[in-house]
């Protein structure tokens, strides 16, 4: 990814987030070549169809003209349209599933899987981090608070008020992360619990007792919910192969009892052509991408 002046994202190191607004996020950064401290603004795109916000275009145009010691200097702007190598997506998803299966076999539910809690080393190995919300579980499934998991990665049973849940909530979160790795943006980007539910319903259809027995009895289910009747997951996942879409559908199955398990997911045909002996990932693939910008929050170390 290069800018209009030949600068590349690899020329900069992101240090910390210093601000966030309606249209984007600003980071403190450093130019690797000059050691100069810079501000790096990442513009938030609501959808590919809408394109770059007019406010961003206006800001870039004005800053190119306003050259003054007391006005911030625009060094360059870059358009990131490249998707992640899909073999790398497959490798990362497989590793996340391996890690969470290890937890589940030891009766631990992470409960807060999200990009910010995934670390990547220089060899491409994924490390699941931040077990602050993790819990050991027993049989029968224990009663928990439903105030867990960052909103965009929260399973529908939690959003609908269930206080009895287990390993399937982690699988739902991994499904959301898988989709985000493919598209470089969250699949369900709600700004409240009800908005999150409706965004899920629009894509996967509104759940009924036929496809999810007992859903209408959950505390926060309302008979007045809008009725979306079609599963449209293929629409936002156009670049995902058929087997990958099938795996994602299984990860995002409404009924937790029928949602694919970590063990089953690792055996899914989507991973049949993954060279498991080359894991964590082929180092040359990792070096050829900017790992700091895989998807928001994923951290390298």
Automatic annotation (TrEMBL):
It is found in: Nucleus. GO terms for molecular function: ATP binding; cyclin-dependent protein serine/threonine kinase activity; RNA polymerase II CTD heptapeptide repeat kinase activity. Its EC number is 2.7.11.22, 2.7.11.23. Gene3D superfamilies: Phosphorylase Kinase, domain 1 (3.30.200.20), Transferase(Phosphotransferase) domain 1 (1.10.510.10). It comes from the Eukaryota. One of its GO terms (cellular component) is nucleus. Belongs to the protein kinase superfamily. CMGC Ser/Thr protein kinase family. CDC2/CDKX subfamily. This is CDK1. It comes from Lepeophtheirus salmonis (Salmon louse). Pfam families: PK_Tyr_Ser-Thr, Pkinase. ATP binds at residue 41. Keywords: ATP-binding, Cell cycle, Cell division, Kinase, Mitosis, Nucleotide-binding, Nucleus, Phosphoprotein, Serine/threonine-protein kinase, Transferase. Transmembrane segments: none annotated.
């Amino acid at each position: 990814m290069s800018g209009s002046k030949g600068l590349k994202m690899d020329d900069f190191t992101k240090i910390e987030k210093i601000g966030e607004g309606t249209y984007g996020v600003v980071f403190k950064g450093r130019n690797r070549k000059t050691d100069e401290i810079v501000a790096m603004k990442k513009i938030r795109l609501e959808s590919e169809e809408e394109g770059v916000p007019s406010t961003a275009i206006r800001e870039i145009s004005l800053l190119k003209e306003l050259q003054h010691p007391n006005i911030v200097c625009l060094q360059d702007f870059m358009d990131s349209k490249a998707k992640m190598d899909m073999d790398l997506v497959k490798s990362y998803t497989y590793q996340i599933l391996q890690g969470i299966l290890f937890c589940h076999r030891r009766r631990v539910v992470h409960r807060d899987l999200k990009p910010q809690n995934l670390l990547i080393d220089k060899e491409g190995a994924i490390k699941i981090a931040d077990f602050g919300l993790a819990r050991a579980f027993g049989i029968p499934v224990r009663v928990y608070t439903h105030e867990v998991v960052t909103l965009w990665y929260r399973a529908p049973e939690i959003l609908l008020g269930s206080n009895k849940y287990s390993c399937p909530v982690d699988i739902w979160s991994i499904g959301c992360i898988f989709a985000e790795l493919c598209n470089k943006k969250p699949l369900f980007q709600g700004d409240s619990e009800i908005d999150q539910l409706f965004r899920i319903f629009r894509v996967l259809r509104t759940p009924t007792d036929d496809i999810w027995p007992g859903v209408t009895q959950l505390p926060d289910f309302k008979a007045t919910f809008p009725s979306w009747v079609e599963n449209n997951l293929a629409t936002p996942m156009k670049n995902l192969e058929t087997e990958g879409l099938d795996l994602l559908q299984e990860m995002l199955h409404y009924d937790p009892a029928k949602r694919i398990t970590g063990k089953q997911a690792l055996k899914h045909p989507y991973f049949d052509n993954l060279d498991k002996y080359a894991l964590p990932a082929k180092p040359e693939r990792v070096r050829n991408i900017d790992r700091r910008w895989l998807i928001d929050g994923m951290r390298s170390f």
